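yo, Reverse transcriptase RNase H-like domain-containing protein is done. seq:
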Amino acid sequence: MEKELLVVIFGLEHFNYYNYGRNITEETDQKPLLGVSKTPYHSISPRLQRMLLRLNKYNVNLIYVPGKQLIIDDTLSRVQLNDQIFNHDVYESTAELCLSATASPSRWEELAKLTKDDPELDDVVYRIKNGWPDKINTRKYAF
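structure:
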């Protein structure tokens, strides 16, 4: 339970720029975490108190979702790789699973079209495929 809470806190703090001040719904497969988050501070351990104080900066709504329905989270956390053998197929299949589970084919087509229509994103795709030029216009590429 504490590890799950640490994961939530780490994710929120890591993406603080995007999360702070917004209503966030966090799905967890740890039902006890819901109870702890609503328990008065004086009745929980000091370690959990500190974690919950870090969590209080954010407008987080924790909801319980059974582990079987958290497909990507559970799949990625259960992938076991032998460190001595680098298996590209496992990494590719994991990436494909993430991509196929997050968006439908029609959504990917829509994203591809919108990327193509956006000059900056289209240029990023071009640079990834063809490399960075020897000389660049610094006004055009502020980053």
